[in-house]
Fold this sequence. Notes:
The protein is α/β, with parallel strands linked by helices. The protein is 31% helix and 29% strand.
Amino acid sequence: MDINTILQPNIQEFIVEKTGSDISKLALLKNPFPEVDYKILLNQVEARTKSKDKLPTWFGEKDIIFPSKISIEQTSSEAAALYKSGLLSGDSLIDLTGGYGVDDYYFSKKINRVIHCEINEELSEIIKHNFQKLNCKNIDCYQGDSSSILHELNQYFDWIYIDPSRRNDAKGKVFMLKDCFPNVPELLDKYFQFTTNILIKTAPILDISAGLSELKNVKEIHIVAIDNEVKELLWLLEKSYANSIKVKAVNIQKTKTDNSLFTLNSESEAIYSIPQKYIYEPNSAILKSGEFDVICDLYNVSKLHKHSHLYTSNNLVEFPGRIFEMNKVIDYSKSSMKEFLENNKANITTRNFPETVENLRKKWKIKDGGNLYCFFTTNLNNDKIVLLCTKINE
Length: 394
């Protein structure tokens, strides 16, 4: 890609004008700029469209060059990057897997000097241009292999940041860090020659126990969800650290952020109860953590069953997730279903239940939507039950 050509005013006007257009229809039209590969133009339009909500700072700045739409999909959102930046402080940071640079943009507001490493030459040039447009004066861009750059600079950094990508030749469904590039578990000792603190971002598909089996010196794990969808896991490592691991489950929403902090594998014991006046469904970050028993202690609630992961109480409490007032508990039987749910409209969730939502809807002719929320679950006596609820929070 010729950056100077893409930055021509008439081409930039075209990209801005066509943002939000149907790319498949736009592709059928004649290329208005024969000097530019039409696929490149279409990619700029599509990537800019995708950045509108995820990267509003980039979207709102003039003369920004966008990477492939896949890179936009894979990069951190500004909300997640802002959260990450709040974990760090110090004089210097080196990002060994720079990518589109969203994280570094926010790191540069907390760290005096940031180094962005990117092996792809074209992408490195794009990022350098964008940082200039965004007035980021304390970020230096280095193109090349990050391990080589790290050794050539041969200096201490307050932080090393890594967002390893899964290699294309990695096979199997299990996501392991050793299958990523760079191979962080293999390189950890080398990295700790240049820093005391390492922050690693991984995809939410990585199992926490699997990550712990590959890493060492883990001090904190942050599970970051945006609007109740887990987007990334953050692993904070400290050289020679060998004490208990703190886990923070975070759900960032438009109007508030839910934070739950606990110690990994704590000795907390769950308290069990029949369904009471209020029902609580944990947010996705807590569900990802697997730390279900400690929730009883943290929020003064009881569990319905060891494997149901629904909570209850008679007194309303602040809770990191959805909260419902329970109207009725029915047994899961033909007679009860016919009386209360068959041919009705309801929002259905299953927790520790042998049938799927799709099967339940088809079997009992239940339409989606409405104000009734139904949890098909199992109680502490191993009975299959349905909780008929009204939602009382957003």
